[in-house]
Each structure stands twice: as C-alpha cells, then as structure tokens.
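pipeline/complex-builder :: batch 7 item 3
reading input block
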Amino acid sequence: VVTGNSMLTGFVYTGHLEEAEEFFRTMPERTAVSYNILFQGYVQFGHVEQARAMFSSMPQPSIVSWTGMILIYSKTGELDRAGELFARMPQHDLYSCTTMIAANALKGHVAESKRLFDGMPQHNLASWTTLIGSYAQNGQLEEARDMFELMPERDNVSWNAMITAHANKGCMDGVRRIYETMPLHNAASFGAMISAYAQNGYLHQAKEMFEKNVEQGTVSWNTLMVSFARNGHASEAIEMFHRMKLDGHQPNQDTFMAVLTAYSHIGDLEKACLELGSMAVDYGLNPV
RNA sequence: AACCGAGCUCAUGG
C-alpha cells in the first residue's frame, strides 16, 4: 500500500491526474492516505468540484483533508466557507492554522490573521513567515518587520518574504539591505529581487539581478521582457527574446504576450505578426 | 519505524 501511495504521489506530483485517478481506481488496497493524495491533487490544481466530492465521500476526513479543503476555498476566495470548515473541524494544528492565517490575509483581513496567530499554542517557521507575508501583502511593512525581529529563527523563505515586504512599499533601500544581509540566495530570492527592481522602474538593476541568477527560468525572462516593453524599451525586450532563444530556453504563452507588447510599443505590427507566426511554428504554441 | 497537507518568489492580454 505504501509503495502504491508513493506511485500515486508520483502521478499527482507530475500533474497526471487522469492517470492518478486510474491508478487509484485499480489499487488493490487503499488507505486514508491514498484518498488524501488524490484529493490533494484536486486541491492543487483547483478542481473544486472533484475535491468537494471526494471530501464528502470520506468517512472520516483526517486533519490533512480538512486543511486541504480550507486551502481550496482560500484559493477560490471563499473565505467564509474556509472559516466555516475551520470552525467545524475536530482539531487544529500548525498546518490548519497557518492555512487559515493565509486565507484571511489574502482577503485583507490581517487583523484576523494576527488573532489566529496569537491563538496558536505553538509556532514554527511557516506560521511566522505566513504572518509576515500577511502583513507584506497588505502593505504593513512596520508590522512585518516587527514580526521578523521577533521570530526565533529565519530561513530563506522568511528572508524572501521580507524582500517582498519592502518592495511592495517601494522601499528599495530596505530591499537591498535585506538582500545583502541574508545568508543565501535562491531562485525565489532572485525572482523577488528582479520584480522588486522591475516594478519600481529600475530596469538596469533588474537585469543585473537576472544575470546573477543561474537558474533563469522562463518566468524570469518573461518578467524582465514585460518590464522592458512596458517602460518603452521595446528593442531591449526584443533583444532579450532573441537571446532567450539562443540560450535554448523555451518560450511559453506568456512570452508571446511580452513580445507582442514590445512590438505594439514601437507600432510594428507586421514584425509582431511575423515573429509570433514563427514562434507558433517553432514551438507549437497557440497565439490565442 | 514508513506513504499524504500549510509559509516566500513568478508572468498574463489593463
């Protein structure tokens, strides 16, 4: 059963929900964990109906399942339903409370987030960081800072959250200070830095960060190209696009948009069509 | 003893 569950996890993890379902159906034996694995797949990919159906079909949803259900309502923005479930579930733990904190913050109810946080018997890195993120999202930089000071230990995720907290307030000194102080940088750190600079109009610095980032995912390329295009640097955007291809990166649908934006800025629609047409052919993308 | 859940980053046609 355990190895079956691991395989099931594999299907879900790679996004093959159909296969997961099939596999699940044909499993000789299923445990509550098996249900949860498939269920989490629905949650993760936003299949609300299926998640709901599965949840109600569980005889005794575990705390994991309850939390999953809260998470999906948080994603769909149905905070009241999330809250209802949270109130109804038999127990709470770090995970469920943290999920609920985040759900409230997404809707701008930071005070409620804080109240939940204060009511928790214990905290860990995730719950602290969620609270910081809650303040950050809602523009409360001071509070985010205070919490960051108070938390007993910090990891990369919490440091990254602080980058964003400052960036959202346009506090670039803070952003730089955090970046320099933090012990290590990962892909998310660079992503945060790139968008921090880009959103505040520091295209040059954004690009510098981009160069420092070893794992330049397609998203980073797109982010930067869009920023260039929006700020009237169409040619730089287009140049990046070509470099991206040279470097062997896969353009995706969003790259389309970035390129289109760039060309529309210089009013060269013909070229845009040509470029998009060839992208469609080269990469099998649909310029919907 | 072993399998599942929460927090940071990311683009999108305003």
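note: Chain A has 18 helices and no strands.
queue -> next item
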